Amino acid sequence: MTGGNQAISTNAAVFRHADREISRHGSDWLFTVCALMGLATLIFWSLSLTKSSSSSHHKRLFHHLVAGATFVSCIAYFTMGSNLGQVPIVAEWPRGGRSPVAQGVFSREIFYVRYIDWFVTMPLLLTGLFLTARPRLPLSTILSTVLANWVMVVCFLVGSLIQTRYKWGYFTFATAALLFVLWQMVWDARRHAAVLGGPVYRTYLTASALLVVPWLLYPVAWGLSEGGNVIHPDSEAIFYGILDLVSKIVFGAVLLYGHRKVGPAVNPFMATDHVDKEQSKATQSTGQLMTEHHAENGQAAGGDVANISSSQESAQGSSEIRVSPSAAAAAAAIPGAHTQLQQPQAKQQPA
Question: How many CA atoms lie within 13 A of 4 on its CB side?
Fold first, then answer.
């Protein structure tokens, strides 16, 4: 067969493949999601460039967070569409495949690259959502939620690579961590966003719903695919792909649209850079005033110095001893008196 998507046949000899893996249709779908993620990345990044420097860094921060998430997902879906970034794992429950089951051994394709994608992108999405509720939301809440999210991803990854029923223990740990993350979004962070009210609260509610609903379905998708081997890898690709499109592209678009109406007057977090610039302007103005003040004082001091110099010259002139002729004649009769009378005059000559 020539033409079309040849990724599966081209990469067939690159890695060891499973009995149950994606077909060409599944690869086409994964490449479609890859293209959508790439297009969303370009749009989000282009929108960040339309922000003037006076809009401050906080506006571009949200664009960069969602653009970074979609870009990483674009790479991950390109890898999965190429049928790479996967490993065959013996399924706990064999459910059909390309080849007959040999001695009870039956493998299913597990895309570990998906969990690398989640490990990087989910914290970016959480950060973008939680910064909407800043500064009311404590930093400790953000850090603890991101940590729990990492625990969830790692446990899902480890569970998918285990061949025995002990994988469900890791599934339980991952689900518990996910519930903690969802609790922080639905309860704790939402309360802090409600205090800010107005467009901040509305933006948070809409954006958080676009994370909570898809993320609640991730354990379902895992149980039907990597966990229970119930659905075909093509169906798995469609299931996960729809969830990722909603939780990244749609979420990012709603978050950025909502922040168009959120400014420094609404959310104090947005005022950080604005305040810094105002303080910088105030500092410059204060510096100019102080410079002008010092210059005026310098001119006044210069005038005072001139007056003092004139006064000193006048004092020196008035301090000269005037000797009348009669006094000089009388002093001549006294030995040494002439020398004493001449000394003050000698001192005044240099002046």
Answer: 8
Q: Determine phi and psi for 102, rounding to 5 degrees.
A: -105, 115
What is the pTM for the complete model shown?
0.73
User: Tokens for 336?
Assistant: 């040494």
Question: Residues with Cβ < 8 Å from 151, sequence gap 6 or more?
Answer: 173, 174, 177
pLDDT tens-digit map of 253-300: 999 998 887 754 445 555 544 444 444 454 555 556 566 655 566 555
Helix (H) or strand (E) segment spanning residue 293: helix 271-318
Question: Residue written as tokens 């379902």?
Answer: 220
Query: Letter for the amino acid at 346?
Result: A
User: Which has the closest alpha carbon to 91: 161, 158, 2, 43?
Assistant: 161
- Residue 178 near residue 187 (C-beta atoms within 8 A): no
Q: Which amino acid is at 88?
A: P
Element at 86 (helix H, strand E):
strand 86-90
**Measuring CA to CA, which residue among 318, 116, 344, 213 is closest to residue 221?**
213
Can you spell out the DSSP letters for 198-251? HHHHHHHHHHHHHHHHHHHHHHHHHIIIIIT--S-HHHHHHHHHHHHIIIIIIH
**Alpha-carbon span 141 to 346, nearest angstrom:** 88
Query: For residues 342 and 350, what is the distance between their CA atoms, to the nearest angstrom?
Result: 14
Residue ranges and CATH numbers for the domains of the chain are 7-263 (1.20.1070.10)
Q: What is the pLDDT of residues 138-166, one digit of tens each?
A: 888 899 999 999 999 999 999 999 999 99
